[in-house]
Amino acid sequence: MKKILIIVGLMIGFVSYSQDKKVKVEQEGDLFEVTFYHDNGEVSQTGYITADKKLQGTWKSFDLKGEKKALGHYDNGKKTGTWFFWNANNNQAYTQVDFGTDYRVAKIYEVKQTSQFAENDSDE
What we know:
single chain; flat
């Protein structure tokens, strides 16, 4: 009976240890780099937080397949600058949102990007 309990205990320990982490935190100076994961192991979000738990700097979000969903910047917990939100069905189309100095939405653009290269771009 004692052996069975030890085996069951070890199995439970191995199963719980082998489960993927949902969050990874690493300290970098005064900031903490945080990475959140989807259930399938793909990165969900990554960015930095301050010691008082405010979002800071560049943050990136990804879907379940690892495709980019959003990219933007935080300043002391508030969205700032230009943010990009990619269309879930078409990674070439995105919405650009510009935040003003008062951290409020200033402008919104819908962009349908093409992947064509300039034809005469060489110096030959």
